[in-house]
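Need a sequence for this fold. Nothing fancy.
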């Protein structure tokens, strides 16, 4: 299985640059995972495709304003730091640009000295471990100085930080949003519950590893980075009850999918779990608990496109993407949605 097997041609102008004014007004492409049948609809009508007794699994992670713009303390040269993962205390694993001059011992300053840092060491993939120094509360300083770490294909400035958060975001720790959840409003979630559909909350703190390009020709040789997940007892019980009673487990986003699949045994039972996952789902994978997936449209040759292909088949996915391009759907983080299910 080659990485090039997951290529499709996407016109640049179909990459969504701004969120819609109304979250739930995105278009919705419904794909039958069994036969490839496609229905074009609007996300406001998602309830048409959900059934009483189903369970939505949502990822309640919260994006931190993880992009810091500062300068080298001695030379004044501009530097950009992206927070990836807190290691311990004030030490973070980060991505630093420009990287060549970001050597251990170098000192950085942000916000006229409100926040200072020292580069400790270079780790995997050229990431840097950095120790921060400050007076006060780190999260408050970050909220003041940091910017939302939008993907590189979004070139417009985001006016409202909250539009890169789901309405149910709760636990801080992500470097990117679980974007399938951006389509839900509080009202729509209330309707979901009123219609007898359960909602299970899990957590996966999204790292950049999910979005790194696949640089190997052989898909199976790609190495996924670890991300921290949590499935509590309440969520595990709700998902297991849904399956036992014949309902469908519908994950909102690939992050929710990877979380529940990581916490599920070969017996199909979800167990409470907190720890790291590096699960890589591509065609040939047998899903243990997820039945359907609400997701956005993903980059060509990406691990996320491989995951949806594992659920619906590569041919069905690529044909659906071809139709989405023809119908001028909006792609990627602020784009339209797709519901992969059994119609």
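Here you go.
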């Amino acid at each position: 299985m080659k990485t090039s097997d997951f290529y499709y041609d996407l016109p640049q102008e179909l990459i969504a640059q701004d969120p819609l004014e109304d979250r739930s007004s995105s278009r919705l492409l419904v794909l039958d995972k069994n036969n490839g049948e496609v229905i074009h609809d609007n996300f406001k009508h998602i309830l048409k495709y959900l059934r009483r007794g189903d369970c939505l699994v949502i990822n309640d992670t919260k994006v931190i304003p993880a992009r810091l713009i500062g300068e080298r303390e001695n030379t004044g040269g501009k530097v950009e730091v992206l927070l990836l993962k807190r290691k311990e205390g004030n030490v973070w694993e980060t991505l630093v640009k420009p990287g060549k001059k970001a050597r251990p011992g170098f000192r950085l300053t942000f916000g006229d000295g409100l926040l200072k840092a020292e580069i400790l060491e270079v780790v995997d993939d050229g990431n840097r471990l950095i120790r921060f120094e400050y007076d006060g509360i780190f999260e408050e300083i970050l909220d003041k100085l940091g910017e939302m770490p939008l993907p590189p294909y979004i070139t417009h400035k985001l006016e409202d930080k909250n539009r890169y958060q789901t309405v149910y975001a709760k636990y801080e720790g992500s470097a990117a949003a679980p974007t399938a959840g951006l389509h839900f409003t509080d009202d729509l979630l209330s309707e979901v519950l009123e219609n007898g559909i359960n909602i299970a909350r899990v957590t996966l703190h999204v790292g950049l590893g999910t979005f790194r390009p696949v640089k190997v020709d052989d898909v199976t040789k790609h190495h996924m980075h670890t991300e921290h997940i949590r499935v509590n007892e309440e969520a595990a019980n709700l998902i297991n009850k849904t399956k036992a009673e014949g309902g469908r487990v519908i994950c909102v986003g690939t992050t929710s999918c990877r979380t529940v699949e990581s916490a599920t045994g070969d017996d199909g039972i979800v167990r409470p779990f907190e720890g790291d996952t590096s699960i890589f789902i591509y065609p040939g994978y047998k899903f243990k608990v997820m039945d359907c997936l609400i997701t956005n449209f993903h980059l060509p040759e990406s691990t996320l496109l491989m995951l949806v292909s594992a659920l619906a088949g590569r041919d069905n996915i690529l044909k659906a993407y071809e139709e989405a391009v023809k119908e001028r759907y909006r792609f990627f983080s602020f784009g339209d949605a797709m519901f992969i299910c059994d119609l």
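For context: The chain has a mean pLDDT of 95.
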